[in-house]
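Q: What residues go here?
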């Protein structure tokens, strides 16, 4: 299984947009992706892909499973949109730290161990996710804490969207120490599969930043404010947005879709995974065959 978290220390650089569109790119190539977003704030992936309507209701959700108090089967948490399985974010994620801490205290009082950062991995393994899915994508919030740690523990690999600005540059420079810090903290190996430049305008400063990135940069995504705003408005991927909501095709937007396809192929290849039915990159008429 290919597994990765979209991560960057900087907020608002395109982690969620990248996670959602890569998931759709894997799905349209005939793979079976599961997306596990973990951001307690509004404007998260569940909002983008329109599966967030029950987030305030007292329904079963991932947090309950992580603290060993599920109200139902894991499979019943799953929603499917655009060929992608998603575990919707729930408001209980806001208090994840407290829930996990309480469970840990209780376990320890009984003489049991409870790894606060290993619970997502446990839930996914118990549910047979590594056997059932080809790809796992986590979209944690940028801030350090159990949301991020659980995501990284479960995926072990990162895809890093980078904003080509001075702020983004600082984030890239801090990345290596961040990755080694995460490794020490979690006691697992963490790899960086790719860095993706998002919002590139090809200025001289931006080219300097690009040259300083030590990770593999499979694609550089241009500034696509109108396309991405449209996706948030219509609550869908960029693929669906261009296919269903654009009255005419803009070549540069189709090129961006092709880039998501190509990044997905790159990541699959890194994991030794071959998509059964890869589209011509950016092909919106591609026939998706579901297994
Ligand atoms: N290529 C792009 N060009 C222009 N704007 C973009 C691009 N990709 C994403 N955006 C916009 O940037 C904003 C932030 O995107 P997104 O929510 O994906 O970032 P994030 O890193 O997940 O943010 P957060 O840290 O809040 O979780 C959104 O308004 C989105 O529409
Ligand atoms: Mg986000």
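A:
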């Amino acid at each position: 299984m290919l597994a990765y978290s979209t991560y960057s220390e900087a907020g608002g650089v395109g982690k969620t947009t990248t996670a959602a569109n890569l998931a759709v790119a894997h799905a349209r190539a005939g793979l079976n992706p599961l997306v596990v977003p973990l951001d307690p704030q509004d404007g998260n992936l569940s909002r983008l892909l329109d599966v967030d309507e029950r987030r305030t209701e007292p329904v079963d959700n991932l947090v309950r499973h992580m603290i060993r108090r599920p109200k139902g089967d894991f499979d019943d948490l799953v929603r499917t949109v655009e060929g992608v399985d998603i575990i919707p974010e729930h408001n209980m994620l806001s208090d994840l730290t407290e829930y996990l801490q309480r469970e840990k205290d209780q376990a320890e009082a009984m003489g049991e161990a409870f790894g606060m950062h290993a619970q997502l991995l446990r839930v996914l393994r118990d549910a047979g996710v590594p056997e059932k899915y080809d790809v796992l994508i986590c979209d944690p919030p940028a801030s350090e804490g159990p949301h991020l740690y659980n995501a990284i523990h479960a995926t072990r690999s990162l895809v890093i969207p980078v904003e080509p600005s001075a702020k983004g540059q600082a984030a890239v420079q801090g990345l290596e120490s961040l990755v080694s810090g995460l490794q020490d903290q979690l006691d697992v190996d963490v790899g960086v599969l790719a860095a993706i430049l998002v919002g590139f305008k090809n200025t001289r400063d931006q080219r300097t930043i690009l040259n300083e990135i030590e990770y593999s940069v499979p694609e550089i995504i241009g500034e696509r404010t109108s396309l991405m705003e449209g996706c948030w408005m219509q609550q869908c991927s960029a693929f669906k947005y261009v296919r269903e909501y654009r009255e005419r095709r803009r070549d540069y937007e189709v090129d961006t879709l092709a880039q998501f396809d190509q990044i997905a192929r790159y990541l699959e290849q890194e994991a030794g995974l071959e998509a059964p039915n890869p589209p011509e990159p950016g092909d919106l008429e591609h026939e998706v065959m579901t297994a």
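A: Context that may help when evaluating the design: Strands lie at 2-6, 33-37, 79-81, 84-86, 135-139, 157-162, 191-200, 220-222. The mean pLDDT is 94.
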